[in-house]
Specification:
- The complex is a heterodimer of chains A (489) and B (245).
- With 489 residues, chain A is an alpha/beta fold.
- Chain A has helices at 4-16, 37-46, 51-65, 105-113, 118-125, 149-155, 162-168, 170-176, 187-195, 436-444, 449-460, 462-465, 470-483, and strands at residues 28-30, 89-91, 133-139, 142-146, 158-161, 200-204, 213-219, 230-235, 240-248, 256-258, 261-266, 271-279, 291-301, 307-314, 319-322, 325-328, 334-343, 348-357, 363-372, 377-386, 394-403, 409-418, 424-433.
- In chain A, strand 3 (133-139) and strand 4 form a beta hairpin.
- Chain A is globular.
- By secondary structure, chain B is an alpha/beta fold.
- Helices cover 37% and strands 29% of the residues of chain B.
- In chain B, the strands form 3 sheets. Chain B has a 6-stranded mixed β-sheet, with helices on both faces. Chain B has a 4-stranded antiparallel β-sheet with strand order 2-1-4-5. A two-stranded antiparallel sheet of chain B has the order 7-8.
- In chain B, strand 9, helix 7 (178-190) and strand 10 (197-202) form a beta-alpha-beta unit.
- In chain B, helix 6 packs parallel to helix 7 (178-190).
- Chain B starts with a strand and ends in a 6-residue tail after the last helix.
- Classes of the chains: A alpha/beta (489), B alpha/beta (245).
- The interface between A and B is medium-sized, with 27 and 39 residues.
């Protein structure tokens, strides 16, 4: 048995370094540093985009230049110099890839280091009989590998990078792009319109249940490169899709900016389940480095009885600014938001959701679990809005915060705006400190402090974790443990 | 197995245990009796390693080692089990998951391999059925919504699965009806072997009708004031604790 000093050293070793802090050696092809019309033209040309998209980007750029960076969130970070960022970096490719065999082995090794679930590694490795999870690997802003394309094609499902979709399905892209998050929506979303480099496009035709979970791993890899992803998912009448998004990033000293836009559209009786595990580099224990994560995620529940479910486990990034939302326009539509946000050391998270009820009898559920430790700040910010014409709306909100130290902060900022008297809105909130009794009970049974914390926290998050697809849930549970190592003060 | 010499324990600035001696050999069952507030539970928690209880003097040796130098989980792995007076609820964590994690954490600390899921399930089902814990309770969250009796049975199931060398049972008998008391007593007696020791902490004599101790101690004012064989329990019953203070 290891003695106490040895055990302490092991803990220090384990917590001292970000586990995924490594850099893959793939040469990047950069756009010149900084943001200008020329850079946008460069990106558009690199991606062989049609004229309309270039015009669209330039329009967004002009709009963005007149906008102010928002400062209402409870996050504090040094001013970002938008001219000190590379807006385009692609891994060098000799030619278009036709199969996974052609994927750079370095890239595959990267996935291995990231601990991508075995099932998906098998998919990537092309093992026969591997479980059906399609991986669209977004690596340094350009999709380099898309699997299971054929089986999806047979089902009529379109799953490709958004750049490809622009070329192959321009009408669909034009119809829905910025239809949920308008170009002018907010500073970061507008910036994304101007400079987005890649992302995912999913289209599920009428009545089709997508035959597999769709999975994308995002990864920011080149130094000082902003990542501006753009995801668009359209579920036609009576269709269903479950989409998984998971992220890690290598260790960097400079802060890296991430400003993604995700738009979901659900038509009559359609259902979209969108799950995220986010563990980008959070910065070191002194608050140096880490990703700035300014994301706009929104779903339009357009059709009758349509349903969108957001589930997120957020453990990474130095600064998180993220509110996956639902516009519940369809009669009887359903919006769900299940969130676990963990902040450690000097991390700051301001996250939550907006449920905008404009459809009659629309319903929403919000379950938010915030866990803070170290000197971090964790804010739930949520809006439940019921418009005048929306009769019979129901919402249930539950926000629980768990504090692990005396030096961290948990904040709950719920906004409720109801313009229709038939609405039933429930809001429950709790804040508690991790209980010494629980810790001692676990430790007296043989769990060390880290294991005890991980177990109690996983129990605290159970209501959210159970909404994750199985293979993701296991990964997410481990991640909670890793994120909280050495965290009890 | 357990040797406590001149132990002093404070909670905050308040001395609770003031010079306690206790010696327990393998194969023995000891009972500590005494009124409320004399430090019985503090003693139990100190043996298990609760950090808020600071030892200001004396020593505890367990199997020859300085127990006080070890963290609570290490003590558990070396065979010390504390049956809680108030078993703690852990929402969201199933009993099975909790117990399996505990067992395997202990095994890993001892350099043993994890117990397989199948072997573990078999073991737990047998122990739960012996102790009258309904199988569905195993899937429920740890102690959440359990009655007082169910919590105590659950403690006994944990003890049976973890199979400790030294079980310190803090008022395991309180809150039990007569049937539950019998089942719990059977559980304790099953743990009684030549290589194990048990320390019972109790207010009442009735548990001692079912689990016959080798030695009974009377605790008052943070110390053991009298020790004797099982006839001491009857004497206590007659005279009350006041006579020993």
């Amino acid at each position: 048995m290891a003695d106490k000093a040895e055990a302490k050293k092991q803990v220090a070793d384990a917590t001292g370094d970000y586990k995924y802090g490594f850099v893959t050696d793939i040469e990047s092809e950069f756009a010149p540093k900084g943001l200008s019309e020329e850079v946008i033209r460069f990106i558009s040309a690199k991606k062989e985009e049609p004229e309309w998209l270039l015009d669209w980007r330039l329009k967004a750029y002009a709009m963005w230049q007149k906008m102010e960076e928002p400062d209402w969130a409870k996050v504090d970070y040094p001013r970002i110099d938008y001219n000190d960022i590379y807006y385009y970096a692609a891994p060098k490719q000799k030619e278009k890839l036709k199969s996974l065999d052609e994927v750079d082995p370095e890239l595959l090794r990267t996935y291995e280091k990231l601990g991508i679930p075995l099932a998906e590694q098998k998919v990537l490795a092309g093992v026969e009989g591997a479980p059906k999870v399609a991986v669209d690997a977004v690596f340094d802003s350009v999709s380099v590998a898309t699997t299971f394309r054929e089986e999806l094609t047979r089902a009529g499902v379109i799953f490709m990078s958004i750049s490809e979709a622009v070329r192959e399905y321009p009408e669909l892209v034009q119809k829905y792009l910025a239809s949920v998050v308008p170009m002018r929506d907010n500073f970061f979303a507008t910036l994304n319109c101007a400079v987005f480099t890649d992302g995912t496009f999913v289209y599920i035709p009428k009545g089709v249940r997508c035959p597999m979970e769709l999975s994308t791993y995002f990864r920011i890899n080149a130094e000082n490169t902003g990542q501006f992803e753009r995801t668009l998912i359209i579920a036609e009448e009576g269709s269903y899709v479950s989409y998984l998004e998971g992220c890690t990033a290598p260790q960097r000293d400079e802060n890296q900016l991430h400003a993604a836009v995700v738009e979901l559209v659900a038509l009559d009786d359609a259902e979209i389940k969108y799950s995220t595990v986010q563990n980008w580099y959070p910065g070191d224990k002194d608050g140096k480095g880490g990703i700035y994560n300014f994301v706009t995620k929104r779903a339009m529940c357009k059709g009758r009885n349509s349903k969108v479910s957001w589930t997120q486990v957020e453990t990474g990034s130095a600064v998180t600014w993220k509110y996956p939302s639902c516009i519940l326009a369809g009669e009887g539509s359903v919006g769900e938001f299940y969130s676990v946000a963990v902040t450690n050391n000097y991390q700051q998270a301001d996250t939550g959701t907006k449920m905008i009820h404009s459809g009659k009898n629309s319903r929403s559920t919000i379950i938010s679990k915030g866990i803070s430790t170290g000197r971090s700040n964790n804010t739930y910010r949520g809006l439940v809005k019921v418009l005048a014409g929306a009769d019979g709306v129901r919402n249930y909100t539950q926000c629980d915060s768990l504090l692990l130290t005396d030096t961290c902060g948990a904040h709950t900022v719920p906004y409720i705006e109801v313009k229709n008297p038939t609405a039933q809105i429930e809001h429950e909130a709790t804040t508690s400190k991790i209980s010494e009794d629980q810790l001692f009970y676990c430790r007296a049974r043989g769990l060390d402090e880290e294991e005890a914390v991980a177990m109690i926290v996983n129990g605290f998050c159970k209501e959210v974790m159970q909404h994750l697809p199985m293979e993701f849930a296991v990964e997410a549970q481990k991640l909670l443990g890793i994120s909280l190592e050495g965290s009890v003060g | 197995m357990l040797n406590i010499e001149n132990l002093h324990v404070n909670i905050g600035d308040t001395p609770i245990i003031k010079g306690l001696d206790l010696h327990i050999k393998a194969g023995e069952v000891h009972a500590i009796m005494g009124p409320n507030g004399t430090g019985k539970s503090t003693l139990a928690s100190t043996i298990a390693g609760r950090e808020e209880y600071s030892v200001s003097g004396g020593s505890i040796r367990y199997q020859g080692d300085d127990l006080l130098a070890k963290e609570p989980h290490a003590r558990a792995a070396e065979g010390i089990f504390l049956g809680f007076q108030y078993p703690v609820e852990i929402p969201g964590v199933s009993n099975l998951n909790f117990l399996r994690t505990a067992l395997n954490s202990q095994r890993r600390q001892r350099g043993e391999a994890d117990m397989s899921a199948a072997d573990f399930m078999k073991l737990v089902r047998v122990k739960a059925s012996e102790l009258g814990l309904k199988p569905e309770m195993l899937k429920r969250f740890v102690n959440v919504g359990f009655s007082g009796g169910e919590k105590k049975r659950n403690e006994m199931v944990q003890m049976a699965v973890l199979d400790p060398k030294l079980a310190v049972l803090d008022e395991t008998d309180s809150g039990l009806d007569i049937d539950a008391l019998r089942v719990v007593s059977d559980g304790i007696n099953a743990q009684r072997r030549s290589d194990t020791a048990i320390l019972l902490i109790t207010h009442y004599q009735r548990l001692l009708d079912y689990v016959q101790p080798d030695v009974i101690h009377v605790m008052a004012g943070g110390r053991i004031v009298k020790s004797g064989d099982k006839t001491l329990a009857a004497e206590l019953e007659d005279k009350g604790y006041a006579a020993f203070e």
